[in-house]
Every structure is written in C-alpha cells, then in structure tokens.
Task: structure prediction
Amino acid sequence: MAIGGNLLFIVIGVIAVLAIIGYLIWDRGRIKKITALHETALNRRMYELAILKELGDRVGYSLDVHQIIDIITGSLHQFIEYSVVSYMLLAPEKVIFKLHLERSVSRAFIDDLRTRMLGSLSALLDREFKKDQVEEVISGAILVPEVDDPIRSFFNIPLVIGEKVVGVLTISHTKAGLYKEEEMTILYKIVGQASQAVTRLQDVVKTEQEKLNAMVESMADGVVMTDTDYRIVVVNPAAKIMIGAPDKKEISIFDFIDNLGGKFDIRGQLEESVKLRKPHLADRILLNDKFFQIFVFPVLSKTKLREGEVLGGVVIFHDITHEIELEKVRQEFTSMVVHELRSPLDGIKKIAEAILGKEVKRDSSSFEEYLQMIHQNSSNMLNLINDILDLAKLEAGKFEVHPVATDIKEVIEKRVAFYKFLADDKKLKLSAVVDKTLPLEIMVDPEAIKQSLDNFISNALKFTEKGEVTVAAFVHNLDKNITEEIKSLGTNFPTAFPGTLKIKAPVLVIAVADNGVGVSPEGLGQLFSKFKQLSSKAMPMGKRGSGLGLAITKGLIEAHGGEVGAVSTSGVGSVFYFVIPLLLPTKS
Result:
C-alpha cells in the first residue's frame, strides 16, 4: 500500500510537472502571440504617424487634392498588399482615373476596375458618368494580356472634402480575402485626416477669398481676372458697368471683346502678358465718355510647390477721367497765369521804354500817370504771386493763422471804406451792418479776416452791375433762427441764407450779399475748389480771375476751425459767408 501510494504520488507529481511545463509553454506562446500582436499594432501606428508626417511635410499648405492622394497611394505598399491602387477625382469637365500597377494585370482587369469605380462614384453622387468622360493615367508595371486573373479583392474609400464627395480611392488584388478591418481602419483614418486638413485649409482660404472679393467688389477700378484658358474667374461691378452690362451675371471674355469695340485687344494683351510673364501698360482709351488707363499683369503662383507657375492673367481698368480733367484745368490755369503776368509786364516794359527814350518828360502830367500804371501793374502781379504762394502753403499744410484780440467791426469798416471808391465808380451802394451785440474783441487772425473779406467784396463788386453790396456780421446762437437774426440787423439778403450750419454755436458769421449775376447750382459746387472759376456764361467778359481767391479764403477760415459757403440765385444775387467759432480773449 505504501508502494502503491508512493507510485500514485509520483504519477500525480509527474502530471503536475507536465501540466506546469505545458502551461508555461502555452503561456509563452500566448505571450509571444500577444507580443506579436502588440508589435503589429505598434508598427501600424508607427506607419500611420509616419505617413501623416510625410503627408504634412510634402504637401504643406497645398490644396491640390491630386497631389495629396498621390502621396497616400505612393505609401500604401508599406503596410498593405495590392495589385493596383487607383483613384478617381472629379474635374470640371472630366473624371481623372489614375492607377498605379504594383504588378502586371490585364486590360480586362483595368476595364472592370474602371466600371466598378465609376459605379461607386455614380452611387455616391447620384449622377451618371460616361466612359468617354474618363481620362486614364497608368503608372508602374505594364499591362500583360496573358495575365487573366480577375479582381478578387476590392475596397473603395470615398474622398470627401468639405462634406462634398470629390472622388473615390480603391485598392484591388487578384487574390481573394486579403483586406482585413485593421488595414481598412488605418486607410480610412489616413484619408479622413488628410481630407479634414484640406477642408480646414479650404475654409481659411474661403474666408480670405471672401475678404479679397469684398475688396475687389468695392474697388472703383474695373478688375477682370482670367485663368490660363482666358475664362473669366473674377469680374467686379466696376468692370461690368464699364462695358455696359451691370446686371449680367455670366460675363465672358467675348463680352469685353465686343464692348471694347477694337479700342483694346484684351485677349491678345492677356496672351502676350502671360506668355512673356511681364506686365503691360496700354495707352489710354476713351470708353463711354470716360478715359481709362489699362494695366495687364500675369498672375504667378508664389507657393513653394508651384512657384513661378502661371495661374492666369488680370486686367485693371483705371478711370483717369478726373486726372485728365484736372490736368486740363491746370493747363488752363497756367495759361491764365502766363496771360495775367504777361500783360502787366508788357505794359511796364513799354512804359519803361518810353521813359528811357525820353518820349515822356519828367515834369509832365503823363510822367506821373505812367508811374501810377507801373505801380498798378506791378501790384497786380504781386497779388497774383502772393495768391499762388498762399495756396502752395495751404496745400503743404504750412499755412498758419495767428489769432489775436481783434475788433471785427473796425476791420469790416476799413475794408468797406477801402472799396468805397470802386463801388462809387460803378454807382453801387456798399455798406456794412454789424450786430450791436457783437463783442468788442474776438480772437482771430486779422490779416486772414482782411484777406477773406477782400476776396468776397471784390468779387461781389466785380459781378454786380446795379443794386447794392452789403457786408453783415452777427453772432449766431444755437437756439436762434438765422433768418430772424439777419432780419434783426435791419437788412434783407437777396437769396435765402442756410437754415443750419455745420459747426456748433455760438459762432461769428460774416456774410457779403450782392444783387449780381448769381451763380448756377453747378457753379456753386466748384466755387471754393482750386483753379476753378465760374463758367463764361455766368461771368461778364473780361472779368475772369485766377480762381485762387476763394480757395485761399476756404483754407484761411478752415485754419480758424470754421467753414465757408455760398448761396445764390441766377439773375437775383448771391451771399458768400464764412463762419468761425466765437472765441473771446481771456481776461488777465
């Protein structure tokens, strides 16, 4: 019994040892299997990270979906087996069908693959595609007719950018049952992350494009942008208006060709600019009563991957009508200045020649008259030159006023007295009306006020043939009616005075009213502009001036923080006025 018991014990022990050894062997195998699975998963994860890094490094900020899919398909052989990797992408007028053959297959294999992929694309987009719409590109191994193995493994992945299907990616093989869930999961993740990256970038580009479009839409210049096939991709409202098609939605290059009427070869200039990669400046053209300067530029890519590639062309129609009008005005002004200086200089020269030639005796009455003429002519020239210099200072922002305590009533009365002889000569009544409540002293630049009054009074006398000229000064308060304030002075203006003024009250208002020829509404808008004069119809013959006086007055009054203006009725009269803040001297 003891022997039997020992034997049983030994047998049990041996079984236990064998069980332990078996378990250890099984566990070691299980561990190896688990380790292998972990290693496989790690390798897949490492591949996933590697391809995403490669995708980021090689693509950067590219929006070229073809390029991104090429990078993905070029890396798939590292973790998945296939005979052919292919993709279909939608293009504006075709379907790009690109295949890479890892091993040789037959033409029948390719045709079957194309049919399947077109079917998938049609199902995804609910749209039918014809075989003649497909543009095929094959790389890798060659087609071998003798290889008649069909497609036995096949997997499609939709390509989605911005929630919109743009194509399909497919892997296929002649062997059956190759593709497992793990491979498909990685492939989905890679394609998905690439699609998300492009979508995010497209959103950024779209936002910036909307900003750019808003800027282009608001530009006064006409802007037309085309692609390399000279199809218009951008055209702003200004360009549409320019060719007389403001409401037309679809604009083509032919609309511009037709409406430009041979004045500018837009297609030819675009082709030349794009071909030579150089900008072109065209001569000015007249189109619908406006002058345009036309600029043509090639549009070149600045991205690293496509740097220097021609993307299209752009044409800018710059309206230079105002510049031409201004140049014409400047030329007329220059001509006027030359004339204004030539006449008195010529008079001075002839008088000097007569004196030097002793044709005029020094003790004669004519000699004194000639000296007066020299003085008058030289004074006229000096006044014109001073006006030009003052205007230059105003334009350069270097003109300054120096306010001091000034008796406005005294300044007005002296200017009225100065022009009294001229008014009497024309049998006009010239008078001054000053508000009794006007402060004795106001902080202004007396020389600037004097010059402004001279411009207003001299113009009023120049353009008034009968009647009277009145200089009025009063304080306008915000709670008072201007018309009532004028009536309280005991005078009536020939035309209604503005009911409101732009600057805040209380202010000093000085106005010069006349019963002259008046100014047309069009002329009123130009009165205080540089180099602008009244039209010849509104101005008596021989009474045109330099056109600088009122512009200088405007600058002088605005330098005081005030404003100038005029109201007029043709054939009835005018009121020219300026308004400045009522600033009183500080008490010491």
Observations:
- The two ends are 140 Å apart (CA to CA).
- The CA atoms of residues 232 and 251 lie 7 Å apart.
- The mean pLDDT is 77.
